[in-house]
Amino acid sequence: MAAYIIRRLVWTVPVVLLVILMTFLLMKQIEGNPFRQTERAVPAAVQANLERKFSLDRPWYVQYANYVKGVATGDLGPSLVLRDRTVNDIVKEQFPRSVELGLLAFGWAVLLGVPAGVLAALKPNSRFDYGSMLFSNVGFALPNFLVATLLIYFVSVKWGLLPTSGWTTWQHKILPSFTLGLVPMAYFARLVRGTMLETLQQDYVRTAKAKGLRWRRVVTVHVLRNSLIPVVTAAAPLLGYIITGSFIVENIFAVPGIGRYYVTAVSARDYSVVMGLTVLLSVIVIVANLVVDILYGILDPRTQEARG
Amino acid sequence: MSATQIAGRMAGVDAGAPIRQSSLWQDAWRRYLRNRGAVAAGAVFLLLVVWCLVAPLVSPHDPNEVDFASAYQGPSWSHPFGTDQFGRDLFTRAALGGRISIGIGFGATLAILGIGVVYGAISGFVGGKLDNALMRFLDALYGLPYLPFAILALAIVGTVDFWTMVVALSIASWFITARVVRGQIIILKENDYVRAAKAVGVRWYAILGRHLLPNTLGVLVITIFLELPGVILGEAFLSFLGLGINPPDASWGSMAQDGRDSYRAHPHIIIIPSLAIATLVLCANFIADGLRDALDPRTKET
Amino acid sequence: MRLRVRVLLAAALVVAVAVVAAGCGGGGDTKGAAGDAGPAKNQVLRMAWGAEPPSLDPGLATDTTSSNVLLNIMDPLVRLGPDLQPVPALAESWDVDGKVVTFHLRDDGRWTNGDPVTARDFEYSWKRTLDPKLAADYAYQLYGIVGAEAYNNAKPAQAAALRDKVGVKAVDDRTLRVTLTSAQPWFVQQAAHHSFLAVHQPTVEQYGAKWTEPQNIVTNGPFELAGWKHDASITLVKNADWRNAGKVALDRVEGRIIVDGTTRVQAFEAGEVDALDGGGLPPADMPRLKQLPEYEKYPALGTYYYGFNLKNIPDVNQRRAMAFAIDRQSIIDNVAQADQIPASGMVPKGMPGFETIEQHFLPPRADLEKAKQFMARADDPKQKITLFYNDAPGHKEIAVAVQAMWKELGIDTTIKAQEFAQYLEFLGPPPNNAVDMYRLGWIADYGDPMNFLELWTSKSGNNNSNFASPAYDRLIEKARNTPDDEQRYELYRQAEAMLTGPNGALPIAPIYWYTYTNLERESVKDTFQINPLDQFDLSKVVIKEA
Question: What is the pLDDT of residues A287-299, one digit of tens each?
């Protein structure tokens, strides 16, 4: 196990470097000028001053080397567009909000999705089963900008129950996290239901039941435990979904996280912010993958090597 | 269901000799037909595709004709889906949008499969150090969100059209598929007939092409329908973020986005394309479930 | 398997219910009518800002949001009156003597730390903005001052020497003398722009790039920056020590940053904010919003136009035909929908001198008959053209409408979108040969037609049309040196005629002159006003008793 973890850790370094290089080169391919945000033409002198200030007049490999050096020392550089702030400022101030949004969404998913799946599996073909599967199918299929727009309209504008947007009190956080949590919720419900049904049919469960063991104990000790393994595995792809979804949810609900700023930064050609955020997101995903794989190994030692 | 899990299950499929293939597919088909949900989903899916293909051909309305006098009409007999802000018939336009959305969906899915198969097949077939390197790399990338890279890719090409959208949606979405294919190849490689073929000196590309890849077909077919919803929704996300396909083309995603601002006064403009997306995604999910059950004889229906 | 079928059907049903529910939405918003009530006790204005200010440093800010925050926390030398003429603010008077403008400052301007505001602060600030090391985007706003451009262009070695040659000098604490490169009659107006605000030298030097954070910033205007949560909120509180604080009614302005247009409208309709910042309402929702009692519109100094590439569409008759085929009024009524004004020229209505300058050639309604006549006269007209626009909201819809209008002339238009940051570079100059037509707009920096007409000189960085006329350049240069308004307007008239008059070259087909649209609670509607340069003065806002 330790060897496995070390091997994985060692591999993380070149992958991160490669992700940085790829993003960097991609960014360089994008045409456009971060210093021209209005119709007004930028005089050559102003452009030259700006490029000098942000070292954009250096050759690309020098810029790359400096950037990697910066990342290594934890300095992601200044924002080219938000002139009063550095990328570190942006991450420090806005990233925790995105994390909070993601965790809350994940919380909704675990809180509602897992029990829904368990109950549905214990009473297959019941009304509850239909209801929860119906809900999760719809939650999965509707574009989240439609869901968000309708939720704000009904819950906030029409019924006045919750604030429309923003991220200050707990009331503000309900709708955005719920919207973002819908897909993971649906995913968990279906996943848990499926694996539960399968586990319930396993011989050892049947034997346990036949032997007269208390049913509740069988479910909690054997069935649920085995059924939760796929939930852990699913966490990594879901993280990817949550990041993707946060781009839209933060936009619509005016959540001051980093997801919504990513899109703005790309269209504004704010190279350093795009670089910083991409590297940050990639590192998070890579680390999350690592943690999940290790957890998976602990939960189910048999499968460790099968994962290649 | 996660793709990896399916891979695991599929590993149990009789990866048997090519002779048995036709009957394997016939069995699967019979099993699929017994699954009424999947059949219904398949029928709706086909209907949707047929509608997208046929409706614009038979429609009396020019999908691009601007006529402000008939703008913002609700559904009626002559305009079953109503009209948009330019008085264009949404029945026809939604069908055209469907061609683009479904086209992008399949295009990107096939691209994902293409890259995944090449990567996975090389990794699985060659094995050894190369396999190790390629897999460690995948381990790290696995789960990387595709959206940032799609946004970057679209920004690079500048103008968004059908093909750029396909590229953007597939560029960072193939990691799972690659892993699945590799898993399949590794298992198949150990089969007796493959060993035998190797022993009698059959060239590697013949083994790969004739014995290994055809037997991964089942997984790939499932993967198509597993990836499709994500790609279709991804296209809608990008449209929402202002990176939608350029006019005169429109996709369901860009049509829904166009309708969002007027959702209060004219909800049908956002609802109809969103509904189309939802239907397609639901169908794809059910078809994928059905296919998995059909191609994996071990799972019994509930 | 029955389960699956049912789930599928039921899923479809749920979606259908959602549709019906959404369709039945609307209504139910009842608003109490505001009478002639007195000021409310609680003078807290809740408003929505349309963007995170990229910078609250007057030297670095370039956008409307930053500009509006700055103009409410800082004290400019002059403000613009209703007719866009400068009115005294921190400068109680000024003298203009040819190329020399002298501002006389009041003696009661105070920084929030108690320091007096002096002419030296302005000299420091303007030179700081021109400093090549600061690399200010809008440094060129000051290029009308002698030596400014040279200093901004300076190599590090010569910078110090060139700095002293910049024509801005604090003669004493209360006298600021500015020497211009030519007599620029609009210069005093231009001083109302946020690029001409003063910054507090010790604060800037102490905190560097972080001086604009609320805990560091020192300002001198009617409001103080009490809080700035990035991307979330901006809170202003009344500056009780401001020279005219007695006249300021608002105690606090609680601003939320909401970028998405639909969400902004929803926040307003849910009663969470009392006013938006005029940053534009979603065009597609305009017909509904215009019915609301809180809807407000203001004339703007701005022109929305389609530019021609004269190299690709060389025949003026084809350009005339295309310009005549555009139904401007229909675009406004059906697409843009914000009560804009059909544009007949580059210089927008409301600009000083407009009555003299206006050409009456291009009609508000399409004149297809005339258009076809022009088209018939065109020599080898280009039948397939490519139209570019940037992908901000609203432009696509106008392009689709114009595409349909040009179809009447037998012109097949391909529409292509690009992101803004890339779009401008793509267009040029030098003008891009791949572009036949392009969309752009121009919003005034100051209230003189020069700001619009100088775009079409042959050396202009905004001229992507291949229109290059020495005669036009001479007219503009002459106007630059003509202080007399009437004489200058006559020169502008001639210039405008060369663009959009009956014998003009038509490098552009103007579409409409902008308006600003906004939602404002009736309690503040009377006093919350947006001027034609998109600025609002919160010190004048009073919340009435509802």
Answer: 887 887 777 777 6
3-state secondary structure chain A: CHHHHHHHHHHHHHHHHHHHHHHHHHHHHCCCCCCCCCCCCCCHHHHHHHHHHCCCCCCHHHHHHHHHHHHHCCCCCECCCCCCCEHHHHHHHHHHHHHHHHHHHHHHHHHHHHHHHHHHHHCCCCHHHHHHHHHHHHHHHCCHHHHHHHHHHHHHHHCCCCCCCCCCCHHHHHHHHHHHHHHHHHHHHHHHHHHHHHHHCCHHHHHHHHCCCCHHHHHHHHHHHHHHHHHHHHHHHHHHHHHHHHHHHHHHCCCCCCHHHHHHHHHHCCHHHHHHHHHHHHHHHHHHHHHHHHHHHHHCHHHCHHHC
User: Which residues of B are less than 8 Å from C326 in CB distance?
Assistant: none
Residue of C nearest to B277 (CA): C15
Provide the sign of the torsion angle of the four alpha carbons B259, B261, B264, B266, taken in this order. Answer: negative
**Most A CBs within 10 Å, among B101, B119, B302, to test the A interface:** B302
**Which token pair is C358?**
């206006």
Structure token digits, residue C391: 């992908």
d(Cα A146, Cα A136) in Å, to the nearest integer?
A: 16
Looking at CA atoms only, how far is residue C165 from chain B in angstroms? 44
| CB-CB contact of C205 with C81 (8 Å) | no
Distance from CA of C11 to the nearest CA of A (A): 6
Residue C197's pLDDT band (cuts 50, 70, 90): very high
C192 vs B146, higher pLDDT: C192
Residues C243, C543: Cα–Cα separation, whole Å: 22
Closest CA of chain A from B212, distance in Å: 19
Is C270 within 8 Å of A164 when comparing Cβ atoms? Answer: yes
Determine contact, residues C236/C227, Cβ cutoff 8 Å. Answer: no
Q: What is the pLDDT of residue A300?
A: 64
Smallest CA–CA separation between B75 and chain C, in Å? 12
> Higher pLDDT residue, A115 or C32?
A115
C-alpha closest to that of C296 among C272, C268, C271: C268
Is the Cβ pair C8, B301 closer than 8 Å? no
* Strand order from edge to edge, sheet including C91-97: C91-97, C100-105, C175-179, C168-172
Q: Is the ipTM of this complex over 0.90?
A: no
Confidence of residue A304 (pLDDT cuts 50, 70, 90): very low
Segment A234-256, tens digit of pLDDT: 777 788 888 888 999 999 999 99
- Chain A residues whose beta carbon lies within 8 Å of the beta carbon of residue C56: 84
Which residue on chain A is closest to B253 by alpha carbon?
A143
The Cα–Cα gap between C538 and C523 comes to 14
Instruction: Tell me whether residues B136 and A286 touch, CB distance under 8 A.
Output: no
Token code pair at residue C17: 């219910």
Q: Which residues of chain B lie closer than 8 angstroms to A244, CB-CB? A: 145-147, 234, 237
Per CB-CB distance under 8 Å, the chain A contacts of C425 are 31-33, 36
CB contact under 8 A, A36 and C232: no
CA distances from B144 to A90, A181, B287, C122 (A): 22, 19, 26, 51
Q: Which residue has the higher pLDDT, A125 or A75?
A: A75
Report pTM: 0.88
Q: Which residue from A125, A119, A130, A127 is spatially nearest to A196, judged by alpha carbons?
A: A119
Q: What is the pLDDT of residues C39-76, one digit of tens each?
A: 888 999 999 999 899 999 999 998 899 999 999 999 99
Mutate to test the interface with B, among A146, A262, A303 (most CBs of B within 10 A): A146
Residue in C287, C404, C415 nearest the CB of B265? C287
Phi, psi of C83 (to 5 degrees): -95, 15
Report the C-alpha gap between A154 and B175 in whole angstroms. 39
